[in-house]
Design goal:
alpha+beta; six-stranded antiparallel beta barrel; 28% strand
Amino acid sequence: MATPRAVAPHVLPRCDLFVHRLTRGRLLPSRLVLDTIVLGTTGHRSGIPRATPLAAHRSTDGTWLVVGSNFGRSHHPAWSSNLLHRPHATVTAQGFSWQVTARQLTVREKEQQRDRILLAIPFYDTYDARTGRDIRVFCLTPVTALPAAAQA
């Protein structure tokens, strides 16, 4: 029998994307538990657009932090590699979308942003201990203005 830890990385993102498409971007089931966005990237090898639901923390300055924990698995998530190669992306949250630029945080910046990282993923330390790799964390900075309704 498969454990929830083994099944969650495969099932949860698919459920989120299905409901997200069905509600035209207004609802993500994971948002009931954590702040969640859909990150649109471009595959760095394929060039194909990708959509990934991610836990994120939005700051008052309009930036988001996203954490490449990959559910504590030993390899980096594909979306993080995509951002390293093509830092221009799209964030969709609560029915609004806008363009962002991604920048990977340094080790020092991750230490400084620890509170925000834990707001994005409260179980970060558990994942960090499990992975055996340096978890990538990105700051997503809006390039386009936020819709007025999304600023609230």
